[in-house]
Amino acid sequence: MFLEHKLEEWVRNVTNKMALPLRVELWNGKHFDLSQAPPKVIIKVPQASALSYLLTPSLSNLGSAYVDGKIDIVGKPSEIISIGGELASNTLKQEGKFARIKRSFGRSKAKDAEAIRYHYDVSNDFYKLWLDENMLYSCAYFENGDEDLATAQLKKIDHILTKIRVRPGDKLLDIGCGWGGLVIRAAQKYGAQCIGVTLSENQAELARQRVAEAGLSDKIEIRLQDYRDVTGSFDRITSVGMFEHVGLLNLSSYFSKIRSLLADDGIAMNHGITSTDADSGETPYGGGEFIERYVFPHGELPHIGLVLKTMQEGGLEALDVENLRRHYAKTCGIWAENFEQHALQIQDIAGDRRYRIWRVYLAGCAYAFESDWISLYQVICTKAGRNQADLPWSRKYIYKA
């Protein structure tokens, strides 16, 4: 067969460049090993038409083939993604289709809300199975490196609230509040009056329930609302894992909106994923293409340089920038492990296709952070040009506790 001969040629080319503990098993009983070592990952090809996915093994092609059942892959997710990344980076050129490219989307509030619902309104029970007990779906903070996930997630919130110096009675706005973890902590521990906004109905419903159960309904309001429709003045503003949905062309207006909501002496924090490509291109070798198609519709990641530029254009001054890339690699790795431990329950809730999507996605994110393809930055900011006499002279206050 022509495609089978092409596969044999492809295997020779790959094994001349590297040895991978990978086996390819064909529908007719033949198999090809890409090293002399025992295989850690097995790709099962049930029919000849599926071979084309292997011959151009971008992360998008391999991921799509797996998600759509064109191929099956046996092995630990971390090893599957690692071998897939090695295949892509050693056999594809970062040019043309597989280069880091920028995407442009026609955006609107309705489209943004639809994209958020697609990602977050899977099922609250789905997320409960692999997140920590407080359901914090963003990068944890491993202060010492040996914390369990729940502890590291609470430390993340405290790290943020300490950085922005939340005081009793402060009005705090949390943009993209998720299931309410940050506002609950801000009200309970720091005495803040909080408003949390989200576009996810599932998140809003459970967040309100959790607020009521904590006896904090007098201190916290959860709104199903677009941040662009929020009015008022806030002493503190947080945005955690939300601005990835804003879009590169809208960053200046996003930061301008935050400025308009921030009190003159207020402090804000933006905590979000960034591209490590200097031109704010997407994750290489088809990784970004896969995420856009299956996981985060309309998501775009800016380089930290673009974040700081557009923040200044929006009338905000960056005071402190912290890179938490390896913290997110560790967070995603734990999520992926939790996901595997609850595989059968997740398949029952979400179905096999969505299970496959998220299995690849979580392990892929851990690999992308480890490989420095993407990063995570916390940026503290204030209104540009404000009097800073009330601000600390050093970062010591962040770690004093």
TrEMBL record:
It comes from Undibacterium terreum. Keywords: Lipid metabolism, Methyltransferase, S-adenosyl-L-methionine, Transferase. The keyword RNA-binding does not apply. It holds the Pfam family CMAS. Belongs to the CFA/CMAS family. One of its GO terms (biological process) is lipid biosynthetic process. InterPro entries: CFA/CMAS, CMAS, DUF7884, SAM-dependent_MTases_sf. Gene3D superfamilies: Vaccinia Virus protein VP39. GO terms for molecular function: methyltransferase activity. It comes from the Bacteria. Residues 14-93 form the DUF7884 domain. The active site is at 365. The lineage of its organism: Bacteria, Pseudomonadati, Pseudomonadota, Betaproteobacteria, Burkholderiales. This is Cyclopropane-fatty-acyl-phospholipid synthase. SUPFAM superfamilies: S-adenosyl-L-methionine-dependent methyltransferases (SSF53335).
